[in-house]
């Protein structure tokens, strides 16, 4: 019996060709599957009144190429090439809005851990429609979160500035632990016990109208995080990047997640502690509303964030 396809798009781009979804496969002996050395990105395309636009694609593909470099790989595509391919792929699939997933990986050409100086690396981009990552209700009313028993690894051996598939095992297990216990998401602490980030999101707190987000070190400095930092400044909020304790989360007036998948999502409860009033607060709402306007190119100062074909 033919395997049931999980297709939610028609075409995937692989090494220069648009291939039908069901043919976008690699070998079971893929080195990256065994050892976790694929690198990936995640960005969104939004349906703006002027047509479909990629959101901050330059920053995403620059980060993708940084991740490629961190692994010692090289691929024959520039940021501009990858942006153009993404636009073409979205159009070919007929999507107005979607998630975009670039990935670079090693196939079955290599056995064992040892990589040659210039391994053969494959590049693919897939797209699919992706609604609200934590559901419409979570997006509107806020999500329930647990502090994970998993922590972000020490910076001496982790590579938090790169999106490397193997590094996501901790995130997958943290999210699994949280959801099996009835929460929507996990927050991971760093090795010193300070708040690092969500499994695939950055965290912001608001106390007395001041916004604080953990400083860089044990977290992926997200592109959405950067949007929120810039938006907060533009709106006149005071914002700092510093260590945040678990205790500070519990007494915050507002806490929210940011990320490409989660966009801006309020947090209403952490470890069974209600955050603020238990409903999304005014600062979160204002930032969220402004962020979504930016994704549609409706905020003059940040129009350069969206990119048309
Ligand atoms: N932290 C982690 C671990 C992530 O995987 C992501 C998603 N890329 C983020 C933070 C948020 O980053 P961005 O806003 O660039 O999507």
Give a verbal description of the structure.
The protein is of the alpha+beta class and 309 residues long. The chain has two domains: 118 residues, D-amino Acid Aminotransferase, Chain A, domain 1, CATH 3.30.470; 161 residues, D-amino Acid Aminotransferase, Chain A, domain 2. It contains eight helices and 17 strands. The strands form two sheets. Strands 8, 9, 10, 11, 12, 13, 14, 15 and 16 form a nine-stranded mixed beta sheet that branches. Strands 1, 2, 3, 4, 5, 6, 7 and 17 form an eight-stranded antiparallel beta sheet that branches. α2 packs across α3. The N and C termini lie far apart (41 Å). 41% of the residues are buried. The model has no long low-confidence stretch (mean pLDDT 96). The site of 4'-deoxy-4'-aminopyridoxal-5'-phosphate has 15 residues, from α6 and β14.
- Give the N-to-C terminal Cα separation: 41 Å
The succession of helices and strands, N to C, reads: EEHEEEHHEEHEHEEEEHEHEEEHE
* Contiguous runs where pLDDT drops below 50 for at least 5 residues: none
CATH superfamily of the largest domain: D-amino Acid Aminotransferase, subunit A, domain 2
CATH top level of the largest domain is: Alpha Beta
- How many H/I helical runs? 8
- Which structural class best describes the helix and strand composition? alpha+beta
